Each structure stands twice: as structure tokens, then as C-alpha cells.
Amino acid sequence: MTATNVSAAAKAELTSTGKLRAGINFQNVLLTTLGPNGEQGGVAVEFARELARRLGVELEIVPYQSAGALGDSWNSGVWDICVLAEEAERAKVIEFATPLTQIEATYVVPAGSSIRSIDEVDRPGVRIAVAEKSGYELYLSRTLKNAQLVKVAGIKAAEERFVSDKLEALAGLKPQLLELAPKIAGARIIDGHFTEVRHTVGTPKGRPAAAAYLREVVEDVKGSGRVAQWIEKSGVKGLSVAPAVRP
After folding, report:
1. CA distance 59 to 82
2. pLDDT confidence bin for 1, thresholds 50/70/90
3. What are the extents of the domains in the chain?
4. What would the CATH number be for the domain defined by 102-195?
5. Average pLDDT estimate for 72-99
């Protein structure tokens, strides 16, 4: 492998161990895939492979089973980059590149619910099941004024809690909810979205050369059509390429 268009400073900050270590959340089935024999794929993995190729180093995938665990490990020293939803709280300790992909987040409500719009969810007495420390949970925790968040570990557990406790709403990414809603009798997806979750690559703060290089690579793989190809290959519906960001 041969490094391409990368400064010595950026390469040193990204490959201090001689290889690129990428923290990847494999619970996020919109950005990752696992084959029958453990083959790893999806946009997050494809990006990490492309970055390692450009750096001219070996890639080591460091797997995680939740976004929260990955985000909380920013100072563990076990990864050089991570792929996560860009969010204000995380951005205090992780330097994110410009957005790579974007996905709408909305709600599912149960049969017979009087809730018809996104705005009607945030009112007293409404309990919302949500995957703890997901990008959209962090957004809702910061912005909701009246509704109560019921935080659980992962979207599947959130769905189960929504049903078992007869909660008023379930928050999630639209592609996930499109799969979940038909399994719940009478459940309905609310039109529109309360936020767009943007995933991208990040590195712990204090690595300015690495951060600048990651922004360049993200914009290049979006502009060249590679991200669109990775999305098509993964077969994920509802995931789209984030708009280009000019320097």
C-alpha cells in the first residue's frame, strides 16, 4: 500500500501504532453489515478501508456493540478514528469531519394514538422509548421540553419497551422504523422528522492535522460517488449521502 496526498503530521496522528485502528459500532445496521461468516461491510467499514488504503497502512477494526460504548471510549487509546453520529455533546471531545451520510429520525405511535405530527409528541404525559446514547437520543435529551424519554440499550430493546409498557411513542431512524412498525399491530409512523442524524468519521480532539485530512477525505469520497456506491452495495433504504461542504 502507498500513502496518497497525506501530510507526515496527519499520518503520524492517525497511525501512531503503524496501522489505522477504526472504532465501528456494529449495532448500527444502517452503516454496517456482517456476513454469515463474519464478513464486515457497510459504509462505515468501507470508509475505514478506503482511508487505510490512502494512508498506506493496515486496517484494524475495533468493534463495538453500541454507539454509547464507542463514543464513551474516546480517551481509551484503542482507536484512531471512529464512525458515529455527529452530535454536540460528542463534539466536545471528538473532532468530527464534515457529514458523510444523513438519515431522518422520527417517531412511531401505537394504534389509536391522537398524535398526528412531530410537534404533538413533545407534550406532558408523552413517554418516548429511545435507544440510549444514540445520536437522536442525545438530540432529544437536549431539545425536548415536556415529553419524558425512556432510555434503553438499543433500538430493539426500545421497541420492546414501547410495546410492553404501552408507551406513547418510539423514536428512531426512519429506515429502522419502517421495518419495525409493520410488526406492531396498528402502529403508525409520524410524517416528517424531528432531526436528521448525520454520521461521519471523527478522531479524538488534539489532532489538528488528522482532523483536517479527514475532512478532505470525506468530501472527496462524497464528491467522487464512492459513498453513494457503498450505500447501494449495502442495500440500506433511507440512507443518503450528506450534501457537499465547501472549504
Report:
1. 13
2. very low
3. 8-101+198-241, 102-195
4. 3.40.190.10
5. 95
